[in-house]
Amino acid sequence: MPSRALAVWQNRQVVSLLVRRDLKVKYQKSILGYAWSMLEPLAMAGVYFFVFGLIFNSNRGVPGGDDAPGGYLLFLISGLLPWLWFSQSLSQAPNALITHAKLITTMKVPREIFPIEVVAAKFVDYLFTWPVLLLFVFALGGRTSAEGLLLWLPLAIAVQLVFSLGMTLLLASVNVLVRDIERVVRILNRVLFYASAIIIPSSLVLESDFPDWFVTLYQLNPLLGIFKMHHAVWYPADAPNALILSTSIGGALVLLVAGYLTFRRLETSVLKEL
Fold first, then answer.
1. Is the pTM of this model over 0.85?
2. What region does 30 belong to: left with phi over 0, alpha with psi -120 to 50, or beta?
3. Which of 58, 116, 237, 265 could potentially form a cystine with 52 if both were Cys, beta carbons 3.0 to 4.6 Å apart?
4. CA dist list (Å): 87 to 79, 80, 118, 189, 208
5. Mean pLDDT in the chain?
6. How many domains, the chain?
């Protein structure tokens, strides 16, 4: 593993070139270009706010109470933007190797750079959405703290990077051999969206009358802790407890190891299939 990691580091410029190429192709012949990275989340936020904020009144579960700075709309935006990073990474993970089949069979580079490129490209897209988040923070009177900026924000990003990379390594290799993975991912993407406190505050589940086994199972979702950390940047009351935090960090590390070992184990079979 150390030698492969060194090889990936030595080829980091290849990752950078692939990321720039993908971003260029994504917005090629587009009049608005990179502005779409901000407009799409805004449109989604508007729809979800209308449905869950106004119709279903999810505002009652906002961390810190109804008077929390930023209200439900900032809660929604602060969870939706990092979710788009994860969701798009998950959607493209199964095809991370298939899409670059010609490059993989002709270039002498570590194959890990292709799953890494998928996660990195979507992370750059996520960074492009930060002006939208800051706009809502200032407009809605949102507040943060030193703990939020120095602890929860970098920890949330780091854990999500590790989780996304492990997931992409796993799905990219398995999908080459079993094409059903891509269809399973479409279902999983939607299930995880509603199970990870993106649009519905976790307190509505954790403080409800659901059976204890269901609440425990809910807390064992590694993504729950990741998005609670993203929310905790602006809502300190939403900071994850010890169980949720340890599940997120531990789950991300386990997935990275499992994903990498699967990737290496299937590498020969994958190359033959490509």
1. yes
2. beta
3. 58
4. 12, 10, 12, 6, 27
5. 87
6. 1
